[in-house]
Amino acid sequence: MKLATKILWALVIGAVVGVILNVAAPSIFTDVDEYVFKPLGTIFLNLIKMLIVPLVLFSIIVGVSNIGDPKALGRMGGKTMVFFLATTAIAIIIGISLAVVFQPGDKGKFDVDSANYKAADAPPVIDTLLGIIPTNPIQSLASGNMLQIIFFAIFIGWGLSYLGKKVEVVQRFMEQGNELMMFLVRLVMKFAPIGTFALIASAVGKQGFDALQAMFWYLLVVFLALFIHVILVYGSALKVLAKRNPIAVFKAYFPALTVAFSTSSSSATLPVSMEIA
């Protein structure tokens, strides 16, 4: 089997096992979850997350240094920002529109009266922009501050591109570091079906069929919104802007999609996405 097929089967079997254990043997599920599902899922997530910071650092430095022309980098960065903001705005519109139409919060049995949530105030835009520039790159790497790491990596990559042959040794080191990180990602992904099975079995088993039934309309709206966004927005962008076959791209990215679905973590999915790209 291909890796994507293995992960898909792991998702299905994990969900079935989680529901069966929750319904038929909840006491057994508690022990199995504590000593089997949770450790396996945690090991997989930690292995993936372990690679995030060095992978982002090496890959962006190598990518920027290979572009060569700072003007081309600026144009690419500008287009990326416009694309990101535009697709984010469309995603917000799709999500809010479907929520208004389906009203998923009214369909299940939810204890709304005792719910207590207060959104944090958004920081000023200028503080956010200034916060991208790290005062201590080592601290940014240690704490996993991704925006600061990306800025630092772009800065280093631009310097390598500008200095050229004077820093050939450093350039080679970065390229070799990038190759090493990609190899480790491929190695960790061999464990993905087991990790995916454990994560899904644990999540479904904890919630149970009743909880999933109560959340059915919410899940339906989420899946519908994601489907519309992926097929219409990203599919159109791939066809019109990138001149690529959307089906071929989605098929190639299936392992990343399954990791994203099973872990609910963009950070955990990042190394897989970059390796596929």
3D architecture notes:
Helices cover 82% and strands 0% of the residues. The protein has helices spanning 3-24, 26-50, 52-67, 70-102, 125-131, 137-143, 146-163, 168-189, 192-214, 216-240, 246-252, 254-263, 266-276. The longest helix is centred in the first third of the chain and has 33 residues, at 70-102. The chain is globular and about 65 Å long.
Task: Fill in the keyword field for this structure.
277 residues; mainly alpha
Q: Could you give the count of β-strands? A: 0
Gross morphology is: globular
What is the CA–CA distance across the termini?
21 Å
What is the N-to-C order of secondary-structure elements (H for helix, E for strand)? HHHHHHHHHHHHH
Give the secondary structure arrangement, pairings included.
Layout: H1 3-24, H2 26-50, H3 52-67, H4 70-102, H5 125-131, H6 137-143, H7 146-163, H8 168-189, H9 192-214, H10 216-240, H11 246-252, H12 254-263, H13 266-276
Helix pairs in contact: 1-2, 1-9, 1-12, 2-9, 2-13, 3-7, 3-8, 4-10, 8-13, 9-12, 12-13
Summarize the model shown.
This protein has helices at residues 3-24, 26-50, 52-67, 70-102, 125-131, 137-143, 146-163, 168-189, 192-214, 216-240, 246-252, 254-263, 266-276. By secondary structure, it is mostly helical.
